[in-house]
Amino acid sequence: MRALAVGGAGLVATLLLPLLLIATLLGGLSTIDPVGDVDPSAIPTAAAAQLPVIEAVTAAACPELPPLWVVAQVQAESGWDASAFRADRNGGSAGLYQLNEANWVDAGGAAWASAPPPAEADVLQPEVHLRTAIPWVCRNLREATRHLATTGKPTAPLDAMLVCHIAGCSRVTGSTTGVPTVGEAGCDATCVDLVDGYLTHVHEFLAAYGRSSGPVPIDDLPAPTPFTGGGSGCTAPDPTGGRCLTPTSRHGYDEIVRVFGPAAPGGPIRSVGCWDEHAWNPDSDHPRGRACDYFPGAAGFFPQGDELASGWRLASWLRAHAEALDVGYLIWQGRFWSPETTDADGWGRAYTGGGVYDPTDATGGHFDHVHVSYAS
Fold first, then answer.
1. Do 32 and 210 meet the contact criterion of CB atoms below 8 Å apart?
2. InterPro entries, alphabetically (predicted)?
């Protein structure tokens, strides 16, 4: 791994911790959907050539790591120059991710015959490098997940990964928030400037390379039949197998089926669940029969591509027809919206989890499902 020339000497990390971005800690960083699609027309030619490899490897070995993040961080590390090598006191770093030899060998690569490595070395072959480095990155991801969950540090996990990569994982584990300030975790002013500059630089690439992933056009979809019934008790049958629904939420469920079709593999909605005891959250609308969760993809995974677009299509439609359907609020992609919510940095406002859910988790942050609560 090499340090980007943004304010200090290179600091070698011993682990990579890629997780999910919720860019809330550093106010100067650009806001972007952490699992937005890569815009192939915007990325370097060398990155576009390897995009199918990145998508295949992340999907198979690390669905938590968005391909957009691979493209952006490799650009920050090597400029997508597979032959890049930087000599330093630790023996140097090489290849797309600029890994040092110890980390490359730990990932399963071959030791270098010389420094810099010869042109035929596997660390300098772009496809081999990515297929070796991404699973290694993901292995460290899961270790970091436990650390952040245990400590409750507020740093966005993918930002913690960047800190780890540029300055060492001790800067994450040894600092109060996961991003060191001067004097924390052995980080002086030069170190802090390096970390902050690196975070900013990668976020700039995320913004430049990401395809817009947010509210989508719904002009082709029919409007729902407005709800005109009465009653707010949990008296209607729950078609998803739960105990009951309120008349309002059952009407909303039926209208979604009419417009989007029933939940089914390969459809825009893969699965749906409404009534649930939710014993861990006494304030939930699910045990009141006033809420449903719609999954455009597999539960526990961050949707991408068509699945992500399907989720946005449903969320956009529900928002547009909130009055007709008596929608109380929506949660989707780490964002909360209600008829009374003012948009801030995009759609609605950042979802905090309310002290009950981990907002960086695929399910806890409502990235894998659209939650709709009805007002009655």
1. yes
2. ARB_07466-like_C, Lysozyme-like_dom_sf
Report the alpha-carbon distance of residue 213 to residue 60 in Å, rounded: 22
Say what the pTM is: 0.54
Sheet containing 93-94: give its strands across. 85-86, 93-94, 99-100
CB burial of residue 78 (10 Å; 0-12, 13-18, 19+): buried
Structural fold of domain 45-209: Lysozyme (1.10.530)
pLDDT value at 146 more than 80: no
Residue position matching structure tokens 């008596």: 326
pLDDT digits over 158-178, tens only?
A: 788 888 888 888 889 999 988
Q: What is the 3-state secondary structure (H, E, C) of 207-225?
A: HHHECCCCCCCCCCCCCCC
Token pair for 285 = 């609308």
Query: Residue 371: what are its φ and ψ, rounded to 5°?
Result: -95, 125
Max CA-CA distance within the chain?
A: 77
Domain boundaries, the chain: 45-209, 247-374
For 8-39, the pLDDT digits (tens) are: 222 333 333 222 332 332 333 333 344 457 88
Whats the size of the chain, residue-wise?
376
